[in-house]
Amino acid sequence: MKVRRMGYIKAVLFDLDGVLYVGDRKIDGAEECIRSIRATGLAIAGVTNTTTQPKRIIAEKLATFGIPIYESEIYTPTALAVQAVATGSAKLYVRESLLEEFQGIRVCNANPDYIVMGDVGGEGYSPDSLLEIFTHVMNGTKVLALHKNRFWQKPDGLHLDIGPFVAAIEYATGKNAVILGKPSKDFFNGVCRSLSIEPENALMIGDDIESDIGGAQQAGLKTALVQTGKYRAEFVKTTGIKADLLLPSIADLYDGLKLL
Q1: What is the DSSP letter of 17?
Q2: 190, 256, 147, 195 alpha-carbon torsion, rounded to 10°
């Protein structure tokens, strides 16, 4: 598959899980698509709200699939969380495997300046954890949510993501969390700055109509929605969001680019 370079598209941003793979299964055509895009000289970025693994492990997973997206090209919300905490203190609600990306910040469990909410594994946030966060926020702690996705796709079907738990804290406290990952406009614009391009010269490809497509459009990017991963036609209709392209899968990107 050979992709011709589009006149105004200078970079392609790929969501990962649901677009290039689902769990431990590579989506057909993913490797060929990335290699073809890279051959055109277009910039490539992997942009993901995944907070279950550090970038190092994500890059290793991509390598096992033969997909040439490298650690330096992967963007996650964790780096933004570290920047936001800066010299303050934080209590981390993340998986142990993600702690390596928070090295250098001051962890405080008693009276933190920030709560960082990410994926905690298992069945999500327990009532005890939600009560802890609620109490901290009512005492003045600010919430940094790595993202606010409603649900995500696992091999056995859809599962609740951290969004419902973030929303519960916001509702109970009357205070808004700072959302660091997709669909944050700052997240998308930050990736574009790193690639030295303007948002209108970037194409975002994702399976999440709200976080990937809606967020990218708000930031000024072109968008392509793939019908793999968490894509559900009926849910997409309820959002009122319409991508520039609708593709059966990443394998159809070449033909889809001709329509932009």
Answers
A1: B
A2: -20
